[in-house]
Here is the input.
Amino acid sequence: MESKVDVAVIGAGTAGLAAYRAARAAGARTVIVEGGTYGTTCARVGCMPSKLLIAAAEAAHAVERSSGFGVHAGPVRIDGRQVMARVKRERDRFVGFVLEGVESIPAADRLRGHARFLDRNTLEVEGGPRISARAIVIATGSRPIIPPILRDLGDRLVVNDDVFEWETLPRSVAIFGPGVIGLELGQALARLGVRVVVLGRGGRVGPLTDPVVRGAAIAAFGTEFTLDPDAHVTRVERQGDQVEVEYRGPDGAPRAERFDYALAATGRSPNLDALAIERAGLERDDRGVPRFDPRTMQAGESSVFIAGDASNFIPVLHEAADEGRIAGENAARFPAVAKGHRRAPLGIVFTDPQIAIVGGGFAALHTDALATGEVSFEDQGRSRVMLRNRGHLRVYGDPETGRFLGAEMAGPDAEHIGHLLAWALEAGMTVARMLEMPFYHPVVEEGLRTALRELDRHMRESHLAGKHPRAASVHYA
Here is the structure.
């Protein structure tokens, strides 16, 4: 049996659902194919359950640090079973909302089974029909990467998906990878009484690329759990019901420690290998991902589009939704493909101090012409009042145009300050114009004003030195 449609979407996650709805809204006859469990990565094993665990950790931490205000509580007692029961209960509630959305899709448009390409415009669905489509959207998501050194650990090896199925909290966990997942889960577990060691390679910490901000983050996290962003792990072995990890620390001395679990947080790989994507005749990169235009999500000049984690581009929910919308709209109008709107890059890590990256961060922006401004939160007024005075902010600007370009931050309220900065970047504001905005007292945002003032001064100095003559239209505060 063969079904002919305008658009076929592979994957019913955040990007796939957005693509389906966009294509349908454009008037295209559209089907969506899902071979796994309904419910997005964010709702099931990502954003929401991790924030539930973090919320429990923040509650415990608030009690523990209350003595700094002269408020003394009794010993904190953490019931691991109650913590995990709430995480799973609320997680299931969020998943339920997603499932309601999926179930609202007409039954004729929902196909269950794994899809494989037969050619660029044809799919076969396991246990279902052959689909002939004018355009196809790949939105198959991603899965955790397991390094070879961890693959023989059996049930002592977990990924973030597994953590949210725990019945109770373990006594100890070795986390491999200080990326977003490793940092968020590592700090949360440490604050909930779990002995945590986070080991990395190459010095990276989360998405941070600015060495000043990264250094401040490492110092802050290091007060709560062991963080070695450039550990040299020499051995990881199963020892009974534990995992033994041998590595060399920053001082070069060998260390051997045992843990209840090893958590692999070493990145994710696009779910493309089961699609027989080679039959679509698409040019691909060294990871097997079709080369595509991020403004249109189109793979080359073909009728195939890609969105979300499968694209291996920007693996965050709001970007996946945007990519799905762009891919769905262009699939519906193919071959009349148009550039979609991509919003100012914004990334947030829900650690304490929080991390925010705006505009792609330091590495993406760094040139000899880049001007910077910065502030430490150690002595920032409101931050000290709240005993949250840790971290650093660096902001970046273009001396030639006076425009704000982005920022990296590890500090208090970074999730909110990051949004303000992303909005300013989206609006194309100059630093001088940003400084004309209201700043209340006393607020954490006064630290942002300090950094912006320094950035503005550095850009003026560069202008006066004749290095970067400004256009006459640039407005000074």
